[in-house]
Write a structure and sequence with these properties.
Length: 372
């Protein structure tokens, strides 16, 4: 099986922002299974037509439209997908957006599979016309400002749901937990996202397993944001709580250098990880690697892989409106020893999912097969 991947990445990135890092790190194992990949950064390359299956990263079309302004809209991509399917190629569209919903439903009829990093457990949501463009489910719990509510309402008429006859094409892929979270020396000398140092040698990131020297009660790095509240509401409330509560040793504030950030996280008992543009964020996995108790808004509505979101087993859940944040954070801190086994369990689950090629391949082999 020969697979072409059309993306802004070049096939060598370590994976700090590369959604295809599992393919890069396990390239040799894929070859043993008879699966061969090649990365393309230009859809006009005629050699793409020679590949049985073509993966299309949605960031690619955004890149050429918005950064290089080569095209005005996605009509060029629709035309290209039609050419591929007429040629007999199997087309798999990867929507790498942060939310389980999509802004790309107008493209689903032109591909064979439509893959998301995470999906709603209730798949009926995808075909329900809810009247809002990019409606973010968890923001319904927020006490948004009048101005933000007005902005959300004004976007309402533009929402497009997935056509019911196309919903069968929706499949789950892998999330950002599969990125490369190793720490390398001298990384400041490498451009972000282009770090090729030892990219062909895969090892697990360095997990913190000794919890005896954790003197920081909780941490969350970030700065308050006065922009889009759909993104910033939970973050702002978490920061406010950590800043104003002097009864505990909390760490918050603006972003700090990566090395310092990891050192701080490894000394933290807990880590607050609010939603942002979507539910899943890098901080979730960094906290697990650093041996923190992950405290996060309820994730019961999401299917994803790696799945480190098992309520009361791998993370401590919060209400979406964060009204129980104070009591939950403080309960964990006051009874920290009782939560160490939760951290160990979460690390065990996460290690298993990111280190097993066989598990990954078996879970997603429908993508790497010529069968529909």
């Amino acid at each position: 099986m020969n697979i072409a991947i059309i993306t802004i990445y070049d096939g060598f990135n370590r994976g700090e922002i590369c959604d295809f890092y599992p393919i890069i790190k396990w390239r040799q194992k894929f070859k043993q299974e008879g699966v061969h990949f090649r990365f393309f950064r230009n859809h006009q390359n005629k050699r793409i037509l020679d590949y049985e299956t073509v993966f299309i990263d949605h960031r690619y079309y955004q890149y050429v439209i918005f950064k290089y302004e080569k095209y005005k809209d996605t009509s060029f991509l629709i035309e290209f997908m039609n050419i591929l399917r007429a040629n007999g190629n199997r087309v798999i569209f990867f929507d790498q957006g942060d939310r389980p919903n999509s802004e790309q439903w107008h493209l689903i009829e032109y591909c064979d599979l439509f893959v998301k990093k995470q999906l709603f457990k209730n798949r009926d949501i995808y075909t329900k016309d809810r009247g809002f463009k990019n409606k973010i489910e968890f923001t319904e719990a927020y006490d948004l400002s009048i101005d933000q509510k007005r902005k959300n309402f004004e976007r309402g008429s533009e929402y497009k749901c997935c056509p019911k006859d196309q919903a069968y094409k929706i499949h789950m892929g892998w999330n950002i937990g599969m990125y490369d979270y190793r720490e390398f020396p001298f990384t400041k000398y490498y451009p972000f996202g282009k770090r090729r140092l030892l990219n062909s040698i895969y090892k697990l990131p360095k997990f913190t397993i000794d919890f005896t020297d954790k003197y920081i009660d909780s941490s969350f790095r970030g700065d308050t944001n006065k922009g889009d509240e759909n993104y910033s509401w939970q973050r702002n409330h978490a920061i406010k709580y950590l800043r104003e509560n002097s009864d505990y040793n909390f760490k918050t504030g603006k972003i700090i250098p990566k090395k310092q950030y990891w050192q701080e996280l490894r000394k933290s008992k807990t880590c607050l990880s609010p939603f942002g543009h979507g539910e899943i964020c890098y901080r979730d996995f960094e906290a697990i690697i650093a041996g923190c108790v992950l405290i996060k808004p309820d994730m019961d509505h999401i299917d994803s892989y790696p799945n480190v979101y098992i309520k009361n087993e791998t993370y401590v859940d919060l209400r979406w409106d964060l009204k129980n944040m104070h009591e939950k954070v403080e309960e964990v801190i006051e009874n920290y020893d009782e939560y160490k086994d939760m951290v160990r369990q979460t690390q065990k689950i996460y290690k298993n999912q990111i280190s097993s090629f066989e598990q990954f391949f078996n879970k997603f082999k429908y993508l790497f097969s010529s069968a529909d």
